[in-house]
């Protein structure tokens, strides 16, 4: 067992290698689901995410739901029964979907391995763009699966938020319709197009 851990740690000794292996693993999944526990200055919530490639649907307990089809984003606010439609930036998507950080790290961030042990790799990402809302991001990966278990986002606008990721499961291919809200499910909701 100790030899296996040593071989695993030697096989991925740089931040880029860890991130590339994680991105490759995520890309190989036709879809995935995961539970998210999010805590920050604006409180705490739990959510579930369904993801396939760039597309995702996120539902949170008693709060907003978000759908993204790779281009357009819909955000449902139950307090006002309204769905806002927009074309988000890559950084806005990253603030909602912690898995997006992993697939876009080479383009947007400088990566550094903070520590690794038999069970985890911890990678720090610093934005290349000095005007980014992010100060830094820290991602903890399971060293066996290369899947993320925790993401800490340090932002200028909303302070620090911690996302704990659990129950990641690979799934079958998912219909594109799962990544946008069905109007029939929101008969009283006002759709506001902000594009």
As a percent range, the share of strand residues is over 45%
| Outline type | globular
Give, in spatial order, the strands making up the sheet with the most strands: 7-8-9-10-11-1-2-3-4-5-6-12
Q: Between the first and last Cα atoms, what is the distance in angstroms? A: 54 Å
CATH topology tier name: outer membrane lipoprotein receptor (LolB), chain A
Number of domains: 1
Count of distinct strands: 12
Q: Classify the helix fraction into a percent range.
A: 10-25%
CATH-assigned homologous superfamily: Lipoprotein localisation LolA/LolB/LppX
Helix count from the secondary structure assignment: 4
The level 1 CATH classification is Mainly Beta
Summing up helix and strand content along with how strands pair, one would put the structural category as alpha+beta
- Note the main sheet: 12 strands, mixed
Radius of gyration over all CA atoms, rounded:
17 Å
The low-pLDDT segments are: 1-12
Q: Label the CATH architecture.
A: Clam
Order of helices and strands: HHEEEEEEHHEEEEEE
How much is the average pLDDT? 87
């Amino acid at each position: 067992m100790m030899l296996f851990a040593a071989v695993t740690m030697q096989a991925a000794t740089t931040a880029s290698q860890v991130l590339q292996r994680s991105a490759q693993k995520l890309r190989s999944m036709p879809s995935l689901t995961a539970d998210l526990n999010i805590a920050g200055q604006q409180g705490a919530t739990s959510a579930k995410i369904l993801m396939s490639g760039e597309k995702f649907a996120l539902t949170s307990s008693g709060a907003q739901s978000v759908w993204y089809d790779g281009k357009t984003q819909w955000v449902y606010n139950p307090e006002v029964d309204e769905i806002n439609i927009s074309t988000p930036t890559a950084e806005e998507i990253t603030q909602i979907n912690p898995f997006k950080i992993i697939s876009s790290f080479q383009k947007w961030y400088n990566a550094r391995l903070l520590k690794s042990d038999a069970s985890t790799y911890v990678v720090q990402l610093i934005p290349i763009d000095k005007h980014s809302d992010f100060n830094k991001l820290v991602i903890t990966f399971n060293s066996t699966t290369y899947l993320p278990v925790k993401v800490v986002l340090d932002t200028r606008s909303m302070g620090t938020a911690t996302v704990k990721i659990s129950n990641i499961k690979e799934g079958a291919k998912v219909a594109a319709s799962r990544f946008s809200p069905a109007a029939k499910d929101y008969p009283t909701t006002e759709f506001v197009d902000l594009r």
